[in-house]
Amino acid sequence: MKEVTLPLVPDDRGVLHAAASDVSGVLRSLGAGWLRAVRTGGSNLDEETVAALTIELAKLADRIDVECIGHTSGEGKSGR
Fold it and tell me: Of these four, 18, 26, 44, 46, which has the most CB atoms within 10 Å of its CB?
């Protein structure tokens, strides 16, 4: 399975943050890696279950992307 890294950036208080695009990328890579492992015989996991989990990870990644697009375009400031 492919190694995935998530760059973390500390703020002025030492709290670590990750770029949303990196997080959504990791979610998509994780699902794709699971599917690849199952389909190539590298895992004994149930393919239907892995496919369902991969879809949910992709949906979560999509929601993160949409929220960030809304935030950067000013839509995220609509009273939330």
Answer: 26
